[in-house]
Amino acid sequence: MSGDTTAAPVLIAGAGPVGMTTALALHARGVEATILEAESEDRDRSGSRAIYVHGSTLRTLERIHPGLGTDLVDEGLVWPTRRTLYQGKEVFSRTYDSPGGSGDIPHFTSVPQVVTEAYMHDALEGAGIDIHWNAEVEIVDSSPDGVHVETSDGREWDGEFLVGADGGGSTVRKEIGANFEGDQSENAFIIADIEDEQIDGDQPDLERIFHYDAPEADGRNVLLVPFTGGWRLDIQCIEGDDPEELSSEDRMREFVCDIMGNEYEDDLKWVSSYYFLQVMADTFVDEHRRVLLAGEAAHLLAPFGARGMNSGVADADEAASAIAAAIDARTDAVVREEVELYAARREKAAEYNLDAAGQALEYLQGEDPVTVLRKEAAASLADHFEIAGEWLDDAPYGPHGTPPIVSTGNY
Ligand SMILES: Cc1cc2nc3c(=O)[nH]c(=O)nc-3n(C[C@H](O)[C@H](O)[C@H](O)COP(=O)(O)OP(=O)(O)OC[C@H]3O[C@@H](n4cnc5c(N)ncnc54)[C@H](O)[C@@H]3O)c2cc1C
Question: Most CB atoms within 10 A, among 2, 55, 290, 387?
Answer without folding.
Answer: 290
